Amino acid sequence: MLTEKAIDDCQQDKASDGHLEKNRKQKNFNFHTARKITGIIFVLPAVLLFAIFVIYPAVDAVRLSFFKIASNGNETFIGLENFKRIFSDKWTLLSIWNTFKIMLICVPSTLIISLFVAATIYQKKQRITSLYRCIFYLAVIASAVTVSLMWNWIFNAQLGIANYLLKLVNLPPQEWLGGTNTSLGCIMVVVVYMMVGQPVIIYTAALEGLSRESYEASEIDGANKWQQFLHISLPMLQPVTLYIMVISTINAFQTFVPVNVLTQGGPQGKTATMVFSLYEEAFLNFDYGYASSIGTILLIVIGVFSVAQFKINNIRHQEGQR
Questions:
Q1: 141 vs 136, 145, 197, 198, 201, CA distance in Å?
Q2: What does the pLDDT average to over 187-211?
Q3: Residue 69 region, left (φ>0) first, then alpha (ψ -120 to 50), else beta?
Q4: How far apart are CA 153 and CA 135, in angstroms?
Q5: What percent of the chain clears pLDDT 70, i.e. is strictly above it?
Q6: Are 256 and 276 in contact (CB under 8 A)?
Q7: pLDDT single digits (tens) 172-182
Q8: Is there a single domain that holds both residue 59 and residue 182?
Q9: Residue that is last in its domain, among 29, 64, 99
Q10: Is 179 in the same domain as 118?
């Protein structure tokens, strides 16, 4: 009898423990579910805004690129005709080439200048570092139109400071924004000036966060500052560099305001970019289908370059681990 009673008590205890464990799991499930629902509620407004104002317009622009849109809003499906027109339109092809030149020059320049500035200022006193951060970040927080107008005055052929500096060294003045050989270079200078501020902030913060142990060990081995920077800082900054490279590439491909304010695509289309051509076709010529096809090409190009940069970075990272 005692044995049976003991067995019954043991079974009851096990059942009670199982019930408690089930309740505990249920409570944990409810807690985690509640946290997920709360997170979704907080994220949902941003996701909806992103979907309405970014995803939907992008998808609709891709759709419109296959149509010819009349002035009364009627849409006629024409297949790939808009895309064929891009590759036969000399103005659009020139704007694509100009955009690639801006990207190929401005992105490396932004990386080099911002990294140089960050490496120069991050070890100085906090007040000095903060001052330089503010100076370089002004171009980011300022209106793009305001910055472009400032550079318009600098490059002014009669009153600009650029020609004044040339005069000081006995060099002839230049038609900076009106010359076919100098106008695109001026646009590139403005683009780099507008892009370099944020990378300076990011690189400075990243350099301040690097572990000092590797530097101390390299000093014991006799490494100089340049060797430390080349073999310690640069590899450790690789994720930051990738981020800055992708963002800078996207910004370079989307160059519009400096062109619209300074040159309006001239002279002779030497400074026209893809976004400027898109703007002209959509809001001056009212050819929304053709403008959408230019935007679709731009979307594909940016996507390809961004994915390629991530792939190249992953390959380098895997090779570095071997």
A1: 10, 12, 9, 10, 13
A2: 93
A3: beta
A4: 20
A5: 88
A6: yes
A7: 999 999 999 99
A8: no
A9: 64
A10: yes
Tell me whether residue 82 is in a domain: no
Same domain, residue pair 133 and 251: yes
> Are residues 184 and 53 part of one domain?
no
Average pLDDT over residues 242-271: 93
User: 213 vs 275, which has greater pLDDT?
Assistant: 275
What is the biggest distance separating any 2 CA atoms in the chain, rounded to whole angstroms? 117
- Do 298 and 195 share a domain, yes or no? yes
Classify burial at 267, counting beta carbons within 10 Å of its beta carbon; exposed 0-12, middle 13-18, buried 19 or more. middle
- 212 in any annotated domain: yes
Report the number of distinct structural domains present in the chain: 2
Residue 20, pLDDT above cutoff 60: no
First to last CA, the chain: 70
Q: Structure tokens of 318?
A: 């895997």
**Residue 70 lies inside a defined structural domain of this protein:** no
* The predicted structure's pLDDT at residue 1: 46
Domain-embedded: residue 312: yes
Q: Are strands 75-77 and 67-69 parallel, antiparallel or unpaired?
A: antiparallel
Give the residue numbers spanning the domain of 32.
2-64
Count of CA atoms in the C-beta half-sphere (13 A) of 241 = 20
My answer on whether 234 and 154 are in the same domain is: yes
Question: Is there a contact between 159 and 153 (Cβ–Cβ < 8 Å)?
Answer: yes
Distances (CA, A) of 103 to 6, 111, 171, 239, 278: 81, 12, 30, 20, 18
Q: With 60 as the cut, is the pLDDT of residue 10 above it?
A: no
Query: Mean pLDDT throughout 128-149?
Result: 91
